[in-house]
Design brief:
- It contains two helices and no strands.
- With about 80 residues, it is mainly alpha-helical.
- It has a domain of about 35 residues.
């Protein structure tokens, strides 16, 4: 299975539509709210991971530059 950030976006909008269903109430609404919280938590981790990968790729691109300045936290 190969998911994309576009797929994630579609899932988030589908969840938003389910939360906007005015016919939901009581236990069904609470169930959907809990589901939304779970989806949001997982989505945040996926986005954070994507951001980390992007930062790593940028860093790798910078390593080709001999004049790179290390961040202060990495300086000896």
């Amino acid at each position: 299975m190969q998911n994309t950030l576009g797929d994630l976006n579609n899932h988030l909008f589908a969840q938003l539509e389910r939360l906007g269903d005015e016919d939901l109430s009581g236990d069904k609404l609470l169930e959907e709210i809990n589901r939304a919280k779970s989806i949001t938590s997982v989505a945040s981790q996926i986005i954070n991971n994507g951001s980390l990968v992007l930062q790593a790729k940028k860093m790798m691109g910078d390593t080709l530059n001999a004049d790179i300045t290390l961040p202060k936290m990495l300086e000896g």
